[in-house]
Amino acid sequence: MSIQTPLTQLLGIQHPVLLAGMAKASSAPLAAAVSNAGGLGTVGGLGYSPEQLSEMLTELKAGLRDPSLPFGVDLALPQVGGNARKTNHDYTNGKLDQLIDVVISHGAKLFVSAVGVPPEHVIKRLHDAGILIMNMVGAPKHAEKALKLGVDIVCAQGGEGGGHTGDIPFSVLVPAVVDVAKKYTSPLTGKPAMVVAAGGVNDGRSLAASLALGAVGVWVGTRFVASVESGASRLHKEAVVGAQALYQSSMISTTRRMSTFLSSWVMCLRSSRRSSRLETSCGKWSSRPWR
To answer: Which UniProt keywords apply (predicted)?
Structure first.
């Protein structure tokens, strides 16, 4: 049985479940599997060149049981320079416009921006191509900013999530962002702006809770890491399956708080009271899956 919400109707999907665009883990096969199952598969393009992103989207589309099924692309777009955090980094390596070319040419249904709002000209290009824009937010003020700048959907991710947003709890953040979104309409559809919930969402209970709090769907990441189609390594998958609440810790990455597995490396960082810089006494940090 499918659950219909304004989001499922907007995206043309059966279930209000979106795969989070996790770097490496949200592979083309996993995104295709989620779209094939009636959700919306999203690939994580963090650090990819335009050529690499194009190859991944070609593979994703080849894996769809129906070429008309929708999919999304997630990029990290923090502001760099000006009054932005000095530690912010351009993960597109100066090739944002070329990456957007790829997103448009491959016919993505949804573009997702994390750790920052897309520049005005990017929002216009995506909307002109009929592509919806969702922005990740970790506080009501972030939602206000993103909606004012013209995004169609905001994803309110509580501090329980593995992504890079903030530490406000899911149960507090989602309804607060829903209240903010009520004041805005989607520039693309002309209909009310929508809120997707994230942060520890892993089963039907958390989906039901999200809908009860006013969200129209959920953004799910870690739950999919252990999937057969995931690009995560075997050790990473086993760590997720075997994890308990006691094994979760908070750390700083991309200068934003995130929840992570309490590995020996994370424990070393905590004991040394260091942040997760690229080089520490605990060893070199890497975004690649564990081997």
So the answer is: Flavoprotein, FMN, Oxidoreductase
